[in-house]
Amino acid sequence: MQADLLKSLFKIHKESSLSGRYIHAASILDLLKNSKLKSYVNSIGKSVDNETIFSITLGTGSKKILMWSQMHGNESTTTKAIFDMINVIISTESVSKSILENCTLKIIPILNPDGAKAYTRLNANNIDLNRDAQDLSQPESKVLKQVFDSFKPNYCFNLHGQRTIFSVGDSNYPATVSFLAPAQDEKCTITDSRKIAMEIISVMNTHLQQHIPNQIGIYDDAFNLNCVGDTFQSLNVPTVLFEAGHFANDYNREKTRELMFHSLLIAIHFISGNNITGNKYDTYLKIPENQKLFYDIIIRNTSGSDIGIQYVERLIGKSIHFIPKIEKISDLSSYFAHREINARGHKVLTPNGTPISEGNENDFVSINNENFSLKLKKI
Questions:
Q1: Domain Peptidase M14 spans what residues (predicted)?
Q2: Which residues contact 256 (CB under 8 A, 6 or more apart)?
Q3: Which CATH number does the domain 3-292 belong to among 3.50.50.60, 3.10.580.10, 3.30.70.20, 3.40.630.10?
Q4: First-to-last C-alpha distance (Å) of the chain
Q5: What is the pTM for the complete model shown?
Q6: Which of 41, 118, 138, 257 counts the most CB atoms within 10 A of its CB?
């Protein structure tokens, strides 16, 4: 698919009712009841707190793709991208026809509605669903496994979001989009199933490099059978992990949303039109592995050590607030920042004139009797 076409499709079909980081079951209910979509929507189970978990099934083709978002409730960017993508697929756009004829998509937009409502990674029992693939101790985990068993997908897309801390390799580039073809054994063997997932990722990477050069990474493929992706890959179903990360000044993840929309449509269109053998997987191996080399803010050239600040995402009322927290006071010369403040050799204090310390949450710091805001500019 051409880059210009994807940009145009996103502009036309972006779901205007979804924005920001706080996306939960109530956010998408009207969309699921929409006259164009409701006949494709099914209730597939309940969460710990008895919230309904929905699926959307589109297309009649033989190539079956299962995808799920917000397994971690506070990772909402891919949910927005899913509905942007759905708007294209149920439209009269020419690209939709081949997808609907060749593929059947089973989409779970929010697997963890309780976590989404509370804006937390975990479910209502404080369990990480992405470590519950073997125990299946949680109702949400059982729902996903039941759908997997009954739908019998040919491909799985595991959709997540990642923190602002990740760099592409050891470079000064944020990992704006990341992927992984999960391992399916302890030796991380490059199996036929993984090769197919790697080839799909390679195609997405080639496209994304046009838009965000050097800002695509992959995750460490250390094997953990408790993770859903590793489990499904171990069952010889090509599985792709998608991770929506940070783009400059995009803390609401709207630019990243567009890039995830591109990635999803590229991948589905590639599957719909090709018999993927995995023979062209080798480009995947050249994608740098993510490292944790970023802070949101670093104050440098202080009278002492550098100061690293991370934003804590906190649900207050019905919106997400980004709270600046002093994460590290140390030599951070080997780290990068999304924003830097030069203290010009002065002490860095709280606005009250007291020393700052790790763990403090400060909206402002005082440098040479001048207050500097650590808060995000309006987003």
A1: 11-271
A2: 77, 176, 177, 244, 245, 246, 247, 250
A3: 3.40.630.10
A4: 31
A5: 0.97
A6: 257
